Amino acid sequence: MPTLVEARAHPAFREASKGREAPLLSVQDLHLHFVTSRGVVRAVEGISYEVHPGEMVAIVGESGCGKSVSALSIMRLLPKLTARIVSGKIMFNGRNLLDLSDSEMRSVRGKDISMIFQEPMTSLNPVLKIGFQLTEALYMHQQISKTAARERALELLKMVGIPDPERRLDQYPHQFSGGMRQRVMIAIGLACNPKLIIADEPTTALDVTIQAQILKLMKDLSRDLGIAMIVITHNLGIVARYADRVNVMYAAKMVEQADAESIFSTPRHPYTIGLLRSVPRLDRPREGKLATIEGLPPNLLSPPSGCRFADRCKAAIDTCRASDPQLRPMDEGQLVRCFRAEEIAERGPEAFGLAPPHGEARSAKTIDRSKPLLKLDRLETFFDVSSGFSLFGSEKSIVKAVNDVSLDIYQGETLGLVGESGCGKTTVGRTILQLEKATGGTIRYREKDLAQLSSDEMKKVRRDIQVIFQDPFSSLNPRMTIGQIIAEPMLVYKLQPNRKAARERVSDLLTTVGLYPYMADRYPHELSGGQRQRVGIARALALEPSFIVCDEPVSALDVSIQAQVINLLEELQERLGLTYLFIAHDLAVVRHISDRVAVMYLGRMMELADRDELYDNPLHPYTKALLDAVPVPDARLERERDHRILGGEVPSPLRPPQGCVFSTRCPLASKECRQEVPPLREIRPNHYAACIKL
Amino acid sequence: MLAYTIRRILLMVPTLLGVAILVFLMLRLMPGDIVETMLREGGGNVPAHVIEQERVRLGLDKPIHIQFISWFGGILQGDFGASMWTGKPVLHEIGSRLELSLQIALMATFLAVLIALPLGTLAAIFKNTIVDHVIRVISIAGLAIPSFWLGMVIILLLLTFYGWIPPLTFTSFFEDPWRNLSQLIWPAMAVGYRYSAVATRMARSSILEVMQEDYIRTARAKGVYERLVVARHGMRNALLPVITVIGLEFAFLIGGLVVTEQVFNLNGIGRLFVQATTRGDYTMIQGLVLLVAVTFIMVNFLIDMLYAALDPRIRYK
């Protein structure tokens, strides 16, 4: 088995790096430990990679794999008390960053290497002006006059595309939107012309159209200014669109390294293959079930001695559990940490069950569209947000969260409801659940107007309509056991004669959602995110509902876990005849799971059609823009695709634009669009869109 | 900002009115009134008609709402009434003692801030090191030791080593600043120690919390000097809760130094409070409670203004 050093001497590897300049950054055999009260967590074990000038390198992996901490260790920003860099080198510009004194390191940070963080909402200091935060790095690293610093700040804001920079300099972070804040973060990162920028999940907190803007900006800046970038992400689409080289991490180790094209066309490590196959594809009609990576990553307090991935790997053999594979070069020039990489290359991942065979489409559902189960008719949910005490009797501020939405949902189908944050999709769900009061229009469930029901009848309807929430961490009461959580609704409705019967039912439900009956005595914090989401599903099923509102049920989960939950939801639908309203912002997930899809923007419905019809022939300019913005995990395809990126941001819901709410960002908009709200029209059979230009 | 200030000022009006009504009613719920205390104290046998006469003289025979209106009407004209015990105007009685109490409160606050901010910051920066442990001992001792006891210890030490005893009379700062300070620094220290302990603990935990924020990491990633990271990015955010604690503690000191004033032989608001309450001196208690309420409301107003000054998110709401 060749070691890493030998690997680097391998002709294929040398070939790959031939003709390049010396690397700007080279991380060499880095080992990082966290000393905690429960023991030593080996967060990073022997990772090595290089970044060349002007290159965009991606580090990919799921939460807890060590990708973020390895980046923080380049900046030496890890918590001093617990983090220990045990061995390894981080060579930057010929110096080992780990040997620098604190003050030498300080002069590297922000000057030669900058960092952009995940949360734009909390990464800027709320009490300091943007101008100050921008120029601070300049003052730290250069002798610069006040006027020169301000000039530079203006230039930076222009560079990152912030309109009206002069005025913006004197504003505070809370006056900026999330996307604008991330632009400011990038401007701060660029201030001193760094050679390397590390971006840790830079767009995870942003909407897709904003994400596309920010990534394009980063890519352009990197190319124009020759700045190297390390992008840490879990989103393979982003990697496909922007990265030159890809490093895949799993459980503190590097499992595969290659250029972007090979990672997507010829992934060799079973984990990489699993990751790629478990994300639904926006660009393809659904093919049966999603591939999943069963199980959970190992606990890094006591990782297994063999291959870290063996327990979840369908191709694992005895050797894998007995000894730990090394990162080895393949003929294609990529490095793979797997004993069976050559066999996988030869016989294809399908032969090992790593990917489901192609073409196994799920049998088409037959949905009776004569009578809707749920019918929304011109639904309106408005919120009065004017402040209670007002001196001069200011006008009322009304947020029209849901405005004139009509929708039929039929028994047994899944209706996907998509849109960016603030579009009102969650409010639609909450209004159906009667958690918000509709201010106009009607909701008919099984042909009964919910507003007209007596409280007894309403109680029956509530039982029939259940919900699965987004955040599996905060939607389960931490003081109750899993069993109590699932049994609670049954006891409220007196569905079970006694606690013993309820307990048995809980066991059944746990089995139904793929958990084990013994987990009934556990508390939520003892379960992983995916397991908790399964508990949320079990709780919803406890009342034997017919209709479930799924509010972003998988968006807080890692991709491999996400696929498990999606498959479970589909299986339950088939088995129990459930109807779903599936609210999500991830268009690929929606394409996979939905029968029909509705697109919302600023409280209004933009388009509604059957799934494949909508994705293959989007009509509304907003839907088109959304679909363009989403990167697809396929490097070759992404590079050929023509990216039209939607500019601007979603206007404030307090002051929505006149006429068509999308008119301020629409490439087709003209004067007529701003005069009247376009109605939702049937433009093709069963394909509705609200646009006068069609 | 202006609208915010005006709104805050207007909001004080209903609060004060509420306090006035509450204190007026609650006093009259207490059994026994001042006339009985004054005339029958010590078991003297005063005829019922004399007591009745006295009640009429003080206006206690009228229905409660009439009493309230005449009292509150007076206040609106700046007349807080006369003490039912001494017959002197309430404002005069309070005014002569307020200077002393206010000065002690200010000095104690000054001392407390002077001690708490550096200690709290040091404790946070050197969390779980010897520095933090020593500061923790100092501040927890401050919480545990009552001010009056510390006051007695201070007096004993001064007496033993310098033969100093607390003077019987109060000298105003404007008459003789040196004499005034040498008299009041000791009670201010006794009170300020406990006060600083509360603020130190608050400052420590607040700074610790702020130093975990993402924007602190951003500042470090920019290459800002660690000292500036703490001072510029940390402190300003961390100060907000500390200011609240300091302000509320200050308001408490105006009326709450009952025992410490006793120990240092000071004739302040705290002592006046006790006297008025034991005597059942309605007008005096009403005046004093209103004073304390006004102090709390003013301090809260100042805190809100400081918040707005420090935190732009509040300013622009």
Architecture overview:
- The complex is a heterodimer of chains A (about 700) and B (about 325).
- Chain A is α/β, with parallel strands linked by helices.
- Chain A is about 35% helix and about 20% strand.
- In chain A, strands 6-7-8-3-9-10-12-11 form an eight-stranded mixed β-sheet, sandwiched between helices. An eight-stranded mixed β-sheet of chain A has the order 18-19-20-15-21-22-24-23, with helices on both faces.
- In chain A, a hairpin with a 5-residue loop joins strand 11 and strand 12 (about 335).
- With about 325 residues, chain B is mainly alpha-helical.
- In chain B, helix 8 crosses helix 10, helix 9 runs antiparallel to helix 10 and helix 10 runs antiparallel to helix 13.
- Chain B is globular.
Q: What percent of residues of chain B adopt helix (DSSP H or I)?
A: over 70%
- CATH H level, superfamily name of the largest domain in chain B: MetI-like
State Rg of chain B. 24 Å
Q: Segments of chain A where pLDDT lies below 50 for 5+ residues?
A: 1-7, 9-19, 389-393
Brief synopsis:
The complex is a heterodimer of chains A (694) and B (317). Chain A is an alpha/beta fold and 694 residues long. Chain A is 33% helix and 21% strand.
Q: Which features would summarize this protein structure in a list?
A:
heterodimer; A: 694 residues; alpha/beta; eight-stranded mixed β-sheet; 24 helices; globular; disordered N terminus; B: 317 residues; mainly alpha; MetI-like fold; 2 domains; 14 helices
Record the SSE blueprint.
The complex is a heterodimer of chains A (694) and B (317).
Chain A: H1 4-9, H2 11-17, E1 25-36, E2 39-51, E3 56-60, H3 67-75, E4 83-92, E5 95-96, H4 102-108, E6 113-116, H5 130-141, H6 146-159, H7 165-168, H8 178-190, E7 196-200, H9 208-225, E8 228-233, H10 236-242, E9 245-250, E10 253-259, H11 260-265, H12 270-278, H13 318-322, E11 328-329, E12 335-336, H14 341-347, E13 372-384, E14 398-410, E15 414-418, H15 425-432, E16 440-445, E17 448-449, H16 455-464, E18 465-468, H17 482-492, H18 499-512, H19 529-541, E19 547-551, H20 559-576, E20 579-584, H21 587-593, E21 596-601, E22 604-610, H22 611-616, H23 621-629, H24 635-640, E23 681-684, E24 687-689
Parallel strand pairs in A: 3-8, 3-9, 6-7, 7-8, 15-20, 15-21, 18-19, 19-20
Antiparallel strand pairs in A: 1-2, 1-4, 4-5, 9-10, 10-12, 11-12, 13-14, 13-16, 16-17, 21-22, 22-24, 23-24
Helix pairs in contact in A: 5-6, 5-8, 6-8, 8-9, 17-18, 17-19, 18-19, 19-20
Chain B: H1 2-29, H2 34-40, H3 48-58, H4 64-76, H5 90-125, H6 130-144, H7 147-162, H8 177-210, H9 214-221, H10 226-256, H11 258-263, H12 269-279, H13 282-310, H14 312-315
Helix pairs in contact in B: 1-13, 5-6, 5-8, 5-10, 6-8, 7-8, 8-10, 9-10, 10-13, 12-13
